[in-house]
Amino acid sequence: MRLSIAIGLCLVLSTILTIDSAVAQSTRSARYQVQVGKPHPDFVFPNIQDGKPTRLSDFRGKKVLLVHFASW
Amino acid sequence: MKNLIKEKKLVMLGVIQEQHADRCRLFQQWKGLDFPIVQDALNQNAIAVVPVLMLIDEHGIVRSRRPNPRTLVADFIDKKFDKPASMAEPIAADFSKEDYWQKRYDKNPDDATNIIGLADTKLVWNRKTKKIKEAIKLYEAAIKKESKPADIHFRLGVAHRMLYESTGQANADLFAKAVSSWETALGMNRNQYIWRRRIQQYGPRLKKPYSFYDWVAQARKEIMARGEKPHPLPVEPNGAELAKRARQMIADANSKNPDPTNKITRVAKNMVTTHVNFVPSHPKPGDVVAVHVGLNISESGNWNHETEAMKLWIEKPDSEIVLSRQLVRDETPYKISESRKSVSLSFEVKIPENATKAVDLSAFALFNMCEKENEQCVFRRKDIAIKIPLSK
């Protein structure tokens, strides 16, 4: 999937995405196993703008569209 | 969807599977992405392909892994979700702190999770050379403790890549270790496309799904046209990272030897050293291999990028070996004229089907450089012997 597929278009493409194969053949731990109807495991990564920690749980109380993507 | 975000009915959070934060920033600037983006350089979320989208409700519950734009508002935005009996535990506030993992590690140094957690923290949140080296040792220790260490091999590859780039000097050993670690990881999990992309990023064009960073030049152009200054890239993508996908290997038949009479003065011994790497690391007969030639200049001199670009000429071998390019030019857009930063030049070689031993090639590089001792800037040649090891 190329970068030219802008984030906004990702939703349109959602019906053809093979998300089932995408998530979590995790060899590390079950915390990355994501299932509909179950809590999404929390994570923390650096924000690319300032490097500060950003957690998924920072968005608790809001409806979130989580997008995993790449620039290539 | 923009309206939903504007009306604060929806928040978008991006997780980018990218090795270089600065490249993420340039991409974000170019596309005008105004939502928060975080970087998962070690693939800690174990995403195997991109893009992946998920809808998560206000309680942190995954409501869809296949969002439908037609039903998004009715099925998600306007829907009230009940608070579940059990919620995901937010991770510890100091989860991203090295101290947190150091304490866990000190308590139980045999636990692979603690070892990897400590190493990850050093890489993700620190990135200093000393910390990268410590992380490498930890990953190596963790690999010995795990029966399925594929993801640790991937992390180890990332650590070696970071160390390789941290000094600004090419080190064949570090690059080779990065590629080898990624190859090992992928060998253990062939369906991990994020890992596969790391090898393809530096690999031959025939194996590429697309050019990985050809967008960088376009992004800069468009950003500058908007009157903005593009985010700088400390590590410029070059060579194989910019190369476009090819369907077949076409031999270079038009290039001309830039030193046909073999008269350009050789550079002084030890002034310039070369390191050669291959992706894949050990090709089989019939494979196409990307060859990366890195040149380092000693502290007694520096490159002079002010005049013509550095060139690499590869002698055409007598055998059935096919070269994608005989003449390679450094196309890095230098902002400063003098630098000691390592220069990398890449080309591709098709190994003959009947090859039985390592493939030997002769090459030479031509470059402008300045010598500190006599303050002279000169044009020099460096002869390079390339030996491509074959898979056993």
Summed up:
The complex is a heterodimer of chains A (72) and B (392). Chain A is mainly beta and 72 residues long. Chain A is 10% helix and 17% strand.
Percent in strands of chain B: 15-25%
Fraction of residues of chain A in helices?
under 10%
Question: What structural class should be given to the helix and strand makeup of chain B?
Answer: alpha+beta
Strand order of the largest sheet of chain A: 1-2
Descriptive overview:
The complex is a heterodimer of chains A (72) and B (392). Chain A has one helix and three strands; from the N terminus they run αβββ. With 72 residues, chain A is mainly beta. Residues 3-27 of chain A have low confidence and may be disordered. Chain B is of the alpha+beta class and 392 residues long. Chain B has three domains: 2-77, no CATH class; 98-202, Alpha Horseshoe (Serine Threonine Protein Phosphatase 5, Tetratricopeptide repeat); 248-388, Gamma-adaptin ear (GAE) domain (Immunoglobulin-like, Sandwich). Helix content of chain B is 30%, strand content 21%. The radius of gyration of chain B is 24 Å and the shape is globular. Classes of the chains: A mainly beta (72), B alpha+beta (392). Chains A and B meet through α1, β1, β2 and β3 of A and β1, α2, β2, β3 and β4 of B. β3 of chain A pairs antiparallel with β3 of chain B.
Topology (elements, then pairings):
The complex is a heterodimer of chains A (72) and B (392).
Chain A: H1 7-13, E1 44-46, E2 53-55, E3 64-69
Antiparallel strand pairs in A: 1-2
Chain B: H1 2-6, E1 11-16, H2 21-31, E2 37-39, E3 52-56, E4 62-64, H3 72-77, H4 98-107, H5 112-125, H6 129-145, H7 150-166, H8 172-188, H9 193-202, H10 215-225, E5 272-279, E6 288-297, E7 301-304, E8 311-314, E9 322-323, E10 327-329, E11 338-339, E12 343-350, E13 359-371, E14 376-388
Parallel strand pairs in B: 1-2
Antiparallel strand pairs in B: 3-4, 5-6, 6-12, 7-11, 7-13, 8-10, 8-13, 9-12, 13-14
Helix pairs in contact in B: 2-10, 4-5, 5-6, 6-7, 7-8, 8-9
